[in-house]
Amino acid sequence: MKVTIDDIEIDVEPGTTILNAARKIGGDVVPPAMCYYSKLPGTGGKCRTCLVEVAAGSTADPRPMPKLVASCSTTVMDGMIVKNKTSQRVHDNRGGVVEFLLANHPLDCPICDQAGECHLQDLGYEHGSEKTRYEEVRRTFDPIDIGNKIKLHMNRCILCYRCVFVANQLTEKRVHGVMNRGEHAEISTYIENAIDNDFSGNMIDVCPVGALTDRTFRFKSRVWFLKPMEAECSCDKCCGKAVLWVFGNEVARITARKDTYGEVEDIDGKTGWLCNDCRFDKKDLTKWTVTGPRVINRHSVISQGKYATSIDKPIKRIG
Amino acid sequence: MKNRRLLLEHIDVPGIQGIEVYQKQGGYDTLTKALKNFSPDGIVEEVKKSGLRGRGGAGFPTGLKWSFLAKPEGVPRYLVCNADESEPGTFKDRYLMEKIPHILIEGMILSSYALGANTSYIYIRGEFMYILDILEKAIAEAHAKGFLGKNIQGSGFDHEIIVTPGGGAYICGEETALLESLEGKRGNPRIKPPFPAVKGLWGCPTVVNNVESIAAVVPIVREGGDAYANIGIGKSTGTKLISACGNLARPGVYEIELGVSVEEFMYGDDYCQGIANGKKLKACVPGGSSVPILPHFLVTKTANGEDRLMSYESLADGGFASGSMLGSGGFIVFDEDQCIVRNTWNFTRFYAHESCGQCSPCREGTGWMEKILYRLEHGQGNLRDIDLLEEMNKKIEGNTICPLGDAAAWPVAAAIRHFREEFEWHVNHAADAQKRNYGLIQQPVVA
Ligand SMILES: Cc1cc2nc3c(=O)[nH]c(=O)nc-3n(C[C@H](O)[C@H](O)[C@H](O)COP(=O)(O)O)c2cc1C
Ligand code: SF4
Ligand code: SF4
Ligand code: FES
Fold first, then answer.
1. Distance B28 CA to ligand 4 centre (A)
2. Cα(B238)–Cα(B258) distance, rounded to whole angstroms?
3. Beta strands A250-255 and A241-247: pairing type?
4. Which CATH architecture describes the domain A2-89?
5. Does A69 contact B at CB distance below 8 Å?
6. Which of the four pLDDT bands, split at 50, 70 and 90, describes residue B445?
7. pLDDT tens digits for B223-258?
8. Strand arrangement of the beta sheet that strand A80-83 belongs to
9. What was the ipTM of the complex prediction?
10. Is the pTM of this model over 0.90?
11. What is the distance in angstroms between the Cα of B351 and the nearest Cα belonging to chain A?
12. Which CATH architecture fits A104-214?
């Protein structure tokens, strides 16, 4: 099927969404996606940042679609013409969505562990306005612990539901979800229970903002001071392929390997989720084989020109 | 215009709640005959011919909706009756179910036969627990008479109806949120497509219809689709239940023939008999809280001076600039003493409370609008708040998963469009706004 996005034509499989077609093209025709996560079936449609204009539905029915559509959950038709960055309407409405997302956001970036790799920060830079028009009292929640490894700052949550899908798909069903409605909706575990599952740490990796953070890393360092290194270990629970974020000889934190869109990469054909042992309990270079530097290929503070030096050979057992 | 009643014809007959009296008035005859004389598709045909439009608010042609139902082999199909009626100003389904439950049950069986559904559900608003009892009693009676269960009236058609109460959330009236809730999950609207006609309850093809739409199938099959289509006006066929409330001399639930004039409905002796206490009309919300409000001069006449009629088309005449919608038939009337800002705040408070919180524009927008309107109403607003509200409406409308976002934005947009000076008054007379409501303060104080 042929689809044209911002005047660039591309051939895709039937059933592809507009967003994924745009990702095939790459670059700045790709709409921002705060809730869709390709590795988590069922996600998407909620944040509305990926809205695009469909200028022609298909060759068979070339009428434009009256409303903007969520590109992450709309499949392409043959001959569809989509406008993303070339549409003023998209620009204005996306600005509106960003304003809504930021309305109740605490903007506590200076003390937030996510700062520097936060998708909401990036979105704010690109589509936000300089000044907030929100003059009301912001809603607040107390931070809670989801088990002894994960901290939930509900104030920062954008309710993308990604962590809920992780919980549903990787851990016991329906222990973690959304309580209450509307503005008062909040992420929570079943009566503040711990999520004790070997893979719960992945919720931190999918969270686009600083709502779910790693308690073993909190306030240790700003992410842009750390050196990301690709490393492997043999693990019988997960793929054992991670990124170590190193400061000197210390491993400050461990995350899964993420792509341009902040999604955990496939490793050997499967999503490279990490188990909690690898993520939280192996903060020691002797437990890993470092294979090289990790290039962080994202349009964000974290990738600002610091990883130019590449190490040619894999280093075995540093320290 | 003579008023025909098809749904409420026997409403005043004592004991009509019970099956004996209902049958004496001809109840279940239509079902018995239809099972003999009609094929399922035959009934779908009659409903198509009748021009019946969904009575839940959107007005989508019911026959057309039914014909979209996917029919894959070996997969059950479901009919789900939407009895979650929670729109402020709308209380027609409650009345129908409470007073004459068997017409809904008969309609459910007829419709299920037409759709090939062996199980159907009535999803009833959680606050209507007493009606749940009424419906279950009616279902038990129908069972005892052989209108439900296996091989109904020897036709070979099996059917069961299950009544399920909701948990008290307006959003569960949205059809896909309703299905989620019925499946025992959190009532979040689903992302469409797929539509329920293809993938509905438990992933099976499902039709969701309003109580009144389903009940209307009984007179349609009884009288024939063509005869039903002759009632009403243009594409607004048949009769419609209107729940009239607010400052009316005689509020209540009326069955009207579509096409009766708004003038007659509001002031006529057969209907609401005018504004209560001899007051003047200030504004009217003709179709439930989600539709645009009309100022007094656009209620009985359209912008180009024609009589406004109680029909889908006439109420919408003029688009959003000078029209509104028939919606769910919640007819709310405001007299000269009422304050539009207060009312707009009240509606918005409802939407902010009822938003499921799934998508950002609705979750954040409804809460934000509520806070601004609260300030305006309480004399703490400023003029730029009004512009901000207008702009926010545009950013919510059309950008959400389900129509609740639109439903929250439209009333605010319309109130500002038609009553801007009243919003400005609240800013410019902050001290007065804190003391009394606008409507009363505008009246000369009678000693
Ligand atoms: C927020 C929201 C609330 C709704 N509430 C109801 C309701 O209480 N009752 C109802 O019949 N339809 C309600 N609807 C409309 C339903 O989604 C659906 O269109 C309707 O049940 C279809 O039935 P009909 O075609 O017979 O009108 C609601 C829609 C929305 C968006
Ligand atoms: S906690 Fe993070 S991942 Fe979970 S819903 Fe909130 S923003 Fe999304
Ligand atoms: S529009 Fe509102 S109610 Fe509807 S899905 Fe979005 S947040 Fe939920
Ligand atoms: S990414 Fe499409 S709506 Fe969130």
1. 49
2. 6
3. antiparallel
4. Roll (3.10)
5. no
6. very low
7. 999 999 999 999 999 999 999 999 999 999 999 999
8. A8-11, A2-5, A80-83, A51-56, A69-70
9. 0.91
10. yes
11. 9
12. 2-Layer Sandwich (3.30)
